[in-house]
């Protein structure tokens, strides 16, 4: 139909036609939160906190400690959240935060943007993130939370967040729903410049 060709509706074979929400494109070199991206796309962002605890670095995978450049005596906050847009699960987030930079974090709600808490409550200046993106196969636990079939592929984004003087503040892995994320790379050969852009597809699959 015309609505499909204009990108207002999306058709999936064997599933049906549902409303297609146009994705919001952002440059991955800029730091924006899930909350900001969802709001820009006209969606209502929420977070379900699955785990929130204070632990010793000695009890964490060595990869986290290496990324955070800390020793085993340091305290960390571990936060696992299910990020949703219009109540539809989009991202499964597992984050480790160096506790000494955020004393009393337990006193604050984690159902909205952590970036806002870092900047507005603790006065931290987030300067950059170092991210890698890879395709992974979802296990039963991950698939159940994201509302998809086990064995499907998803995007796993691993990232270190830095504050002033390139000091690591957090290390996280965020598992993105298979149909909720895509990235695009534009290359300009003459100027020998690369521009990497990403966008989140907030598809309201409940309307299918």
Tell me the number of structural domains.
Answer: 1
How far do the termini sit from each other? 16 Å
- The computed structural class is alpha+beta
Largest sheet: 6 strands, antiparallel
CATH class: Alpha Beta
> How do the strands of the widest beta sheet line up side by side?
4-5-6-9-8-7
Low confidence ranges: 1-30
Radius of gyration: 18 Å
What is the count of β-strands? 11
Question: What would you call the shape?
Answer: globular
Percent strand = 35-45%
Percent range for helical residues? 10-25%
Topology as H/E string?
HEEEHEHEEHEHEEEE
Corresponding CATH superfamily: Chorismate lyase-like
Query: How many helices?
Result: 5
3D structure, described in words:
By secondary structure, the chain is α+β, with helices and mostly antiparallel strands. The chain has one domain (24-207): Chorismate lyase. The protein has 5 helices and 11 strands. The chain has a 6-stranded antiparallel sheet with strand order 4-5-6-9-8-7. The longest helix is centred in the middle third of the chain and has 8 residues, at 114-121. The chain starts with a helix and ends in an 8-residue tail after the last strand.
Topology:
Blueprint: H1 2-5, E1 9-12, E2 16-19, E3 24-27, H2 34-40, E4 45-56, H3 62-68, E5 75-85, E6 88-98, H4 114-121, E7 128-137, H5 140-146, E8 153-163, E9 167-176, E10 181-188, E11 193-200
Antiparallel strand pairs: 1-2, 3-11, 4-5, 5-6, 6-9, 7-8, 8-9, 10-11
